[in-house]
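Continuing the series of single-chain predictions for the mutant panel. This is the parent chain; the variants come on the following pages.
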Amino acid sequence: MTRSRAVVGGALLLVLALLALRMLLGARAELATAHAARARGDLAGEQRHLRRAFAYYLPANPWLRRAHDELLALAREADRRGERERSLAASLELRSAILSLRGLTRPYAATLPELEERIARLLVREAGASAPPVARLRARLAHPPEPDPLWAGLGLLGFLGWTGAAILLCLRGLRADASLVRRRFWPLLAIVLVGQLLFWAGMARA
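Parent structure:
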C-alpha cells in the first residue's frame, strides 16, 4: 500500500509540474507572438497577445511579468506621444487583465492606481464638458464590481470537493493492482463530478 501511495503521489506531482510548465510555455508563446506582431507593424496584435499572456497566470511567471511590463510601457509611451486612443486602449486592456487575476491574492494591483488615473484623464478629455470630473471618474474605477460572494464561495467549495475527492479516489478507491474498491470508488467519482459542476457554475456566475 505504501508503494501504491508513493506512485499516486509521484503522479500528482508530475501533473502539477506539467500544468506549471504549460503556464510558463503559454505565456512565453504569447509574448513571442506579440513581439512578432510588433516587428511587422501590427500594433493591435501586439497589444492583444500581451493581454492574452495573462490567461497563463502562475506566481513568479517571468514571461507574464514581461507581458505586464511591456503593456504598461506601451500605454505610457502612447500617452507621452499624445496617442490618446492607443494609450486608453492599452490601459483598459491591462486594467482588465489585472482585475481578472483577483482572488485570494491581487497580483500586479500596485499598477492599478496609475492605470485608473490615466484612463480617467483620457476619458474626460474625449468626452469634453459632458464628462464627470477626473477625481469622480477615478473613484469609480478604483471600486470595480466585486464577484458575487455566494457563487464564488460555491465555486471554491466545488473546487476543494473535486480535488480532494480525486486524491482520495486514487488513494482509497483503487488497489495497488489498479482494481476498483467499488464501495469507495463510485461515491468518490460522483463527488468529483458534482464538485466540477459546482466549480464551473460558480466561476460562470460569480
